[in-house]
From TrEMBL:
<keyword id="KW-0433">Leucine-rich repeat</keyword>
<feature type="compositionally biased region" description="Basic and acidic residues">
    <location>
        <begin position="270"/>
        <end position="281"/>
    </location>
</feature>
<dbReference type="InterPro" id="IPR001611">
    <property type="entry name" value="Leu-rich_rpt"/>
</dbReference>
<keyword id="KW-0677">Repeat</keyword>
<dbReference type="InterPro" id="IPR032675">
    <property type="entry name" value="LRR_dom_sf"/>
</dbReference>
<dbReference type="GO" id="GO:0003723">
    <property type="term" value="F:RNA binding"/>
</dbReference>
<feature type="coiled-coil region">
    <location>
        <begin position="402"/>
        <end position="433"/>
    </location>
</feature>
<protein>
    <recommendedName>
        <fullName>Leucine-rich repeat-containing protein 47</fullName>
    </recommendedName>
</protein>
<dbReference type="InterPro" id="IPR003591">
    <property type="entry name" value="Leu-rich_rpt_typical-subtyp"/>
</dbReference>
<feature type="compositionally biased region" description="Polar residues">
    <location>
        <begin position="529"/>
        <end position="539"/>
    </location>
</feature>
<dbReference type="InterPro" id="IPR045060">
    <property type="entry name" value="Phe-tRNA-ligase_IIc_bsu"/>
</dbReference>
<dbReference type="InterPro" id="IPR025875">
    <property type="entry name" value="Leu-rich_rpt_4"/>
</dbReference>
<keyword id="KW-0175">Coiled coil</keyword>
<dbReference type="InterPro" id="IPR005146">
    <property type="entry name" value="B3/B4_tRNA-bd"/>
</dbReference>
<dbReference type="InterPro" id="IPR020825">
    <property type="entry name" value="Phe-tRNA_synthase-like_B3/B4"/>
</dbReference>
<dbReference type="Pfam" id="PF13855">
    <property type="entry name" value="LRR_8"/>
</dbReference>
<keyword id="KW-0597">Phosphoprotein</keyword>
Amino acid sequence: MAAAAVSEAWPELELAERERRRELLLTGPGLEERVRAAGGQLPPRLFTLPLLHYLEVSGCGSLRAPGPGLAQGLPQLHSLVLRRNALGPGLSPELGPLPALRVLDLSGNALEALPPGQGLGPAEPPGLPQLQSLNLSGNRLRELPADLARCAPRLQSLNLTGNCLDSFPAELFRPGALPLLSELAAADNCLRELSPDIAHLASLKTLDLSNNQLSEIPAELADCPKLKEINFRGNKLRDKRLEKMVSGCQTRSILEYLRVGGRGGGKGKGRAEGSEKEDSRKKRRERKQRREGGDGEEQDVGDAGRLLLRVLHVSENPAPLTVRVSPEVRDVRPYIVGAVVRGMDLQPGNALKRFLTSQTKLHEDLCEKRTAATLATHELRAVKGPLLYCARPPQDLKIVPLGRKEAKAKELVRQLQLEAEEQRKQKKRQSVSGLHRYLHLLDGKENYPCLVDADGDVISFPPITNSEKTKVKKTTSDLFLEVTSATSLQICKDVMDALILKMAEMNKYTLENKEEGSLSDTEADAVSGQLSDPRTNPSAGKDGPSPLVVEQVRVVDLEGSLKVVYPSKADLATAPPHVTVVR
């Protein structure tokens, strides 16, 4: 009777055991009640699935601890995702040892400390010897375990954003402690100092310590041989010139400033003064250009690094885009927001690749592998409005998926399922890749959500794919963005905020960094079929980069009653200090 009760309460476990699955995702509205009935822990039956390579349990407010038996029962686990639960204040018992674990995501919990016995695992021998990515963001950690580097010596990415840390343990930066660490993010903490020993992180490429309480940046940071990207915005630095530089200058310039000793004397003084004079000349030229361009305003030099987003209200737009929502999506994927962004420059170098990569990262992180939300970007010129967001039976939904031939949704899903099985058999992967990772999100759905244009063509099939018809290319400058969710309207808005702010950052980076491999004006015109226009081509203007324009998109029901408009006054309200939103 007890076994039957467990099977009834946890059918996913029985199915995973029967099909010898390597991946398991536990989420959804019924999960919280079942975990509460299990004492705030995962059911012991879960730890009798030794073939599991990937385990995710997300969005469960009653999950306070994983429970005993995880390390012993899941020895082949490669990825463990326990985000947006209620884990804390520590982990009892500790997670490790997990000898095969490569990815550990504990973000969005209530962890306050990870002391020995209540943390990630033992230090001797290492409890997580193969761990490459550790995400502890969005917790309440006051300190990091001193033995973190010994517990996970092969760590490559460490995310500590949004905690209560006031310092890093000295052991983290000792020579040879983390020889492979390439990404360190600890924004939005209370860090008061950064040790010069950070120079011992020989593989460090990206460092984000924005919005802390740092007053100095050690000159030794410039000795990190592979460092390419730093972010110290939002710190009140004693060196006010350096404070302005971190808000608007490229990493290379900041590191050079640190390398030559800043404003100090010694060997670097002449070079630093020369750099200041060159910057001063450059800013005088910029102010002169603005005056000649008719601007008539001289901005403070600290504004050089600011990003501008101009919101175009529906009432100001002669042809606003509208999304009509059909009532049947209520039972499938009820929430959607849209926006139009004009002025992106995706032509130079790797700009398009960076744009697509940023979407992938958002899907992995904020969208929680598309379980919380899914975003899609479209070439605006190929989008014919008004749009209809509706739900159709799989056999009636036709789409030309990105990189594939036209197919009905039923056929597409079946094809992806067969490809996923083939991947598992051939490569013995810990998990499938590409679109195959999201098929489980359609399990049990009688209708599939889709976005249809005025021609009757399906341009989006969330959470699986977009249409080839509206594919974003290098010549794209104006885009339609959509975010859908089965969870909440707010997560749609949060994801859209993050995407638009990221687009602004990327556009600024593209315009500031001249890259080879961009299309010439003639080539771009030939591909796009229209002449270069300063209003739509961000590279065409003579007065430097223009702000991105974000046009409001209204979402209405079939009778025309307003459901949501984005961006409203409440949206993009938490933009960082270096971003100015003009409404």
